[in-house]
Specification:
The complex is a heterotrimer. Chain A is mainly alpha-helical. Chain A has one domain: ABC transporter involved in vitamin B12 uptake, BtuC. Chain A is 78% helix and 0% strand. In chain A, α1 packs antiparallel against α11, α2 crosses α9 and α7 crosses α9. Chain A is globular, with a radius of gyration of 20 Å. By secondary structure, chain B is an all-alpha fold. Chain B has 12 helices and 2 strands, in the order ααααααααααααββ. A two-stranded antiparallel sheet of chain B has the order 1-2. In chain B, α2 runs antiparallel to α9 and α2 crosses α10. Chain B is globular. The C terminus of chain B is likely disordered. The chains are: A mainly alpha, B mainly alpha, C alpha/beta.
């Protein structure tokens, strides 16, 4: 499992996991589940079109994902399920279906693009993935503070001079790049599962932002590694494991949080229904 | 007369009206898009488009499970849609962010399962292409023995909507008022969701699971751009939905010899494209209309401008936040 | 005009608006609004919903550019990087599960607009602790911001705004959702902050009575027009009637003030004949 072509697969998978963990952290924070779901769909059409004309699917994916990210950013629909956006995205899927229907490998190509597959990662692709991954992470590390502020309290961020629309645009572009890297491995339909499941679980375990970010990456790595290994051993699609594990971790995190909350006492969380009186009971938390 | 015949002959390729599958497609496709359009109007007004979309995507799981078990995909679609509707009813009242995340996670698990079922089914039955027909529809391969089922289910969904028309509208506009009038808001909502589940599963067969949203909200959204009155919107949506589906069927049939592959373009592609075009036209038309109306009145648009400077478009409540 | 109590001696003008007007979508939202804010003073921005209070905030924050008039910050036009204005909004939509604690949000007030990830430092932690102490927020310092009560969140946002040592603090309807005791606490806190840190504090409200004890000046807004000055200068029948465009009565009851729509047409006619010069700022 760890030799030959699989080495590349492991490297790419690891990079994808780290990026998904970081990008996912902000995706969940901003409540952009819909966008994370939508951009890969548009990418699907690009990938299909690219494979048809013999161009790298990567490039086609990236181009379409980027364009739709910018379009969504300009139209200013952050997480809103507007009729126009939904219809446009469904059209993208239909276009992808059309392109693929013209190719010889219709069924197989559809399956791979939507549900992911481990094989077929060339060294070149590893390089491209590494570079794109580095770009994504660098961007989010740089924008960490303003993006955090803008995601949680946008009006206050505006007062600091942080323009919400600019932040949204940057974020969407990063999502587009992250998606492009990940679709070939995890699949267009399941990329967002990784991007939501890992951070969704992480936030149940801690309230400290940096720790949550780190945990999100850790969980994401765990999910992807298990998925790759399991897929290799069983021949079942990677996407299956990612989807299921994403749900498992997410639900596990919620269960943990609920169990913890029923046990009010000291700890780094105040009682959720805190009023002045109850707060005194929690005592000094300094 | 021959000129006319020539044109018609060009539009309707030979054998269109005599082909069995085409007839089934026209009948079933027409009925299904009618139901979807009608139910879709309520879906859009109630701001539940995302729910409708999710039920469609979830159909992938049901359809692929049915495929694995060797059962007609329609039953799979219905099962997953109904389960999904129940889940939505249970968790639907949370904060939108939480709801979106939960939906995403469930969808992820569902699609993961679908991937597995499709893979196993392909290995077992030694056929490929199931994924394609589940995801993108199989309008031309519907067995004519299934027609009664489709028609019956469609009529059931339409009957539900007809019966619930007033209480549904009332509880959409204001839950409190409906409650005060004695409308069992929760029950009405639940029954409506089941009608939605039926409509979505039907269109999963014709247009495909991940594209079914198009016939659900496309005609409805376009109709609501053209008129504010629900009854009229339903009529418009139905006309748009059925017309788009029939024209798409025709185009798909005609495309059999079109380049590049010589095996026809997918019907669902035409459907989603035409739906988008119609919506864009309706949207454009309504903007022009409001601009003209606004220019006549003073102020430039027919929205309300408060002292805070933000203007609200008059029809935002319809397609508004969910 | 006679003032029973002269305004706080504050030579430092932090912000001044001079005949600022704003047109949006063909409607005049603000009409020649003029007022100034001084360090160490609490100014109330009073008016009902839709009168223009939030718009004035947005103009000050640079989110809307005035169509006419000038705005000066300490005598100079608005700087680009604005760390010298603190802002506390009225509503914040928070996810209860968001992984951000009170002390993290306050910390972001120091340098939230800088690039990169902050390295934990003792100095930073001390600053945050001190500020938390100042607004009495240590008890919930480690709680998720989505989990604390409205009043606690408000104090957190105030701490966030103050930690960067701004010269101007804007609060959008801070008293709107509070019970009377919390109202008192916040008002006292803000007054203390203004005096101790020599900050100009602008508080918007639709009800001025809770602010009366600490308000040094008032800017009364109605339909996009404003009248500014001390309470005695502005909250008078002639001024407010001219502002609203119809007669209003100003009733004084036990130290509190009530502004109500007038009922006497004859009285209104009499007002027309008065020749008192209106205070600065009335259109």
């Amino acid at each position: 499992m760890f030799s030959g072509f699989m080495v590349n697969a492991w490297v790419v998978a690891t990079i994808v996991a780290v990026v998904a963990g970081v990008v996912g952290f902000f995706t969940v924070l901003r409540g952009s589940a819909f966008v994370a779901h939508a951009i890969p769909q548009a990418g699907f059409a690009g990938a299909a079109g690219a494979s048809l004309i013999g161009v790298s699917t990567f490039a086609g994916l990236g181009a379409f994902a980027l364009v739709s990210a910018v379009a969504i950013g300009l139209l200013g629909k952050r997480g809103r399920h507007d009729a126009m956006t939904a219809l446009w995205l469904v059209f993208m899927l239909g276009l992808g279906a059309l392109f693929l229907s013209w190719s010889q490998e219709y069924a197989a190509a559809v399956f791979a693009l939507l549900f992911g597959e481990v094989l077929g990662v060339s060294t070149n692709q590893v390089l491209v993935t590494a570079v794109l991954g580095a770009v994504c992470i660098a961007a989010l590390v740089l924008l960490y503070r303003p993006l955090l502020l803008s995601s949680v309290v946008p009006t206050v961020a505006e007062a600091h001079g942080i323009r919400s629309q600019q932040m949204e645009m940057c974020f969407l572009v990063v999502v587009a790049v992250a998606t492009t890297m990940s679709v070939p491995v995890v699949g267009a339909l399941l990329m967002f599962s990784l991007m939501i499941g890992a951070p969704g679980a992480a936030r149940s375990f801690t309230a400290k932002p940096l720790v949550a970010l780190g945990l999100s990456v850790a969980i994401s790595l765990l999910i992807v590694w298990i998925s790759i290994a399991a897929s290799y051993l069983t021949d079942w699609p990677v996407g299956f494991f990612v989807g299921i594990l994403g749900a498992v971790f997410f639900i596990g995190g919620r269960a943990w949080a609920t169990w913890r909350r029923s046990d009010v006492g000291r700890g780094d969380e105040a009682d959720p229904r805190s009023g002045a009186g109850q707060l005194q009971e929690v005592g000094q938390l300094a | 007369m021959t000129g006319m015949a020539a044109i018609l002959g060009g539009i309707f390729e030979a054998g269109f009206f005599t082909s069995g599958p085409v007839r089934v497609a026209l009948l079933v496709g027409g009925v299904v898009s009618l139901v979807s359009a009608v139910v879709g109007v309520f879906t859009v007004i109630r701001g539940q488009s995302f729910a409708g979309h999710s039920l469609g995507d979830l159909g992938t799981t049901g359809g692929s499970a049915a495929y694995l078990l060797g059962v007609n995909p329609l039953w799979g679609f219905i099962t997953s849609a109904v389960i999904g509707a129940l889940a939505i009813e249970m968790f639907g009242n949370r904060h939108p962010r939480e709801r979106d995340m939960a939906t995403g996670i469930v969808l992820g698990a569902g699609l993961g399962l679908a991937a597995l079922f499709l893979y196993l089914g392909t290995v077992q039955h030694n056929t490929s292409g199931a994924a394609v027909s589940i995801l993108f529809g199989s309008m031309f391969v519907i067995s004519s023995s299934m027609i009664p089922v489709f028609v019956a289910l469609s009529l059931a969904a339409l009957a539900v909507v007809a019966l619930l028309y007033r209480p549904l509208l009332l509880s959409t506009v204001s839950q409190e008022i409906a409650f005060a009038r004695g409308v069992p808001v929760r029950a009405v909502g639940m029954v409506y969701l089941l009608a939605l589940a039926i409509a979505v599963s039907l269109s999963c067969v014709t247009i495909g699971a991940i594209l079914s949203t198009a016939v659900l909200i496309g005609p409805a959204a376009a109709a609501l751009r053209l008129t504010k009155r629900p009854g009229l919107a339903i009529a418009w949506a139905a006309v748009i939905g059925v017309t788009v589906t029939w024209v798409s069927t025709l185009l798909a049939y005609d495309s059999y010899y079109w380049p590049p592959a010589g095996r026809g373009w997918p019907v669902s592609f035409f459907v989603v494209t035409l739906v988008l075009i119609v919506y864009l036209l309706a949207d454009l038309g309504s903007r022009q209309a409001s601009r003209r109306a606004g220019a006549r009145a003073m102020g430039g648009n027919d929205g309300r401008a408060g002292a805070d400077g933000r203007t609200q478009p008059a029809e935002s409540w319809v397609l508004g936040a969910e | 005009m006679t003032d029973p109590a002269p305004p706080t001696p504050a030579g430092n003008e932090v912000l001044s608006l001079e005949r600022v007007s704003l047109w949006l979508s063909g409607r005049e939202i603000l009409h020649e609004v003029s007022f100034s804010l001084h360090a160490g003073e609490v100014t109330g921005l009073i008016g009902s919903n839709g009168a223009g209070k939030t718009t004035i905030f947005r103009v000050i924050l640079g989110l809307e550019a005035p169509s006419a008039g000038t705005m000066l910050f300490g005598g100079r036009p608005r700087p680009r990087r604005n760390r010298s204005i603190g802002y506390v909004p009225q509503h914040v939509d928070l996810d209860p599960d968001a992984p951000l604690r009170t002390r993290d949000l306050v910390g972001l007030g120091i340098d939230g607009d800088r690039l990169g990830i902050p390295l934990p430092s003792k100095h930073r932690r001390q600053l945050v602790d001190d500020m938390l102490e100042a607004v009495d927020a240590r008890a919930f310092a480690k709680a998720r911001i989505g989990n604390i009560s409205g009043g606690e969140l408000q104090r957190t946002l105030i701490a966030h705004a103050l930690i960067s040592k701004p010269r101007l603090l804007l609060l959008d309807e801070p008293l709107a959702n509070l019970d009377i005791r919390s109202e008192q606490e916040i008002v006292d806190l803000l007054s203390r902050v203004a005096k101790e840190q020599q900050i100009a504090v602008l508080i918007s409200a639709h009800e001025m009575n809770p602010l009366l004890p600490v308000m040094d000046r008032v800017v009364y807004v109605a339909s996009g027009r404003a009248a500014s000055g001390t309470t005695d200068q502005v909250v008078r029948e002639d001024v407010l009637s001219a502002l609203y465009g119809h007669h209003v009565d100003v009733l004084h009851l036990d130290g509190r003030i009530l502004v109500v729509a007038g009922k006497d047409e004859g009285h209104h006619a009499e007002l027309e004949k008065t020749t008192k010069a209106p205070p600065r700022g009335v259109a």
